[in-house]
Each structure stands twice: as structure tokens, then as C-alpha cells.
Amino acid sequence: MRVADKAFVKSLMMDWQQTVRDITGEDVTLFMITPMQPGEAVVTEQGIFDEKEVFDILSAIVEHEFGFERSTIKGSCRKREFVDARKMVTGIMLHLVPAISLGNLGKMMGGRDHSTIIHQRDHNYYMLAKDKKYERRFDTIMHLTKMALLAKEEQNNLIEI
Asked: Does pTM surpass 0.90?
């Protein structure tokens, strides 16, 4: 992503927020701008990133939390802990980057088909509803990912000045 693109997206976001503030008198938070092409800027409440940046940060956190190599997220092993990690990555990516295509997410996760991503997404929802331990781990990884994205955005802002 080019710095000019990032600055442009930030200015649009700030203009939009100011317009809404002028009309309604209330502050608003912009959670996401839908990218037009894969890899374009994604604006989340944590900052501006591309899909790959979010995936890389999330993969590092999952690696740390589960205690195995990042490559297992892209691998084909069917051990429960690896499968659960993949489901969590799918769920968190779809939450943080809702405009990501299922095909692009599948490619990032080792060349998986979009139907595999749909299955992982659906099973992630099921596990969140039925398994409290899974839910706690998912929430922890989601929280750590959001904090890492915030820290990265703050670091980027310091560098740009």
C-alpha cells in the first residue's frame, strides 16, 4: 500500500466523520471502508491496513497462543488444535476485514477453496456458541490482534511525522 493512498483514505475518513458530526452532533467511528481491489486499504477501528498485514499479525498471535509454527495455519494437518486455530483465524479475519473475499482468504490460508472458508466460518460460529473454552481463546486472540493493530498504527503514525 502506498503512503499517499493511506493519507488519502485517512482524509476521507476524517471528512466523513466531521460531516456526520456536523449533521447529528454525535461522534461516530468508521469501522471499515470496502476495498475496491484485493490489497487496497482497509480501514478498521484499529487503523488502516491491507488484508495481508492483518493476516500476518493474526498469524503471529495464533502462533504464540497455540505454540506452533505459522505454517500449520496453511497446512493440511487435521489435529484438533490446528483445525481450531484455522477456524479462529477465519472468524477473526472475517470480523476485522469483512470485505475480504472468501477466495482471497482461502489463498492466504494455504490455497483453500472458498467453500472451505465458508465451512470454517460456520463451524467457528457453532464452536463459539457451544464451547466456552474455545470462546475464551477466540476472544483472547481477537483482543490481542486488535491491540497489535492499534500498536502498529501508532507506530506508523510516528514514522510518518
From this structure: no
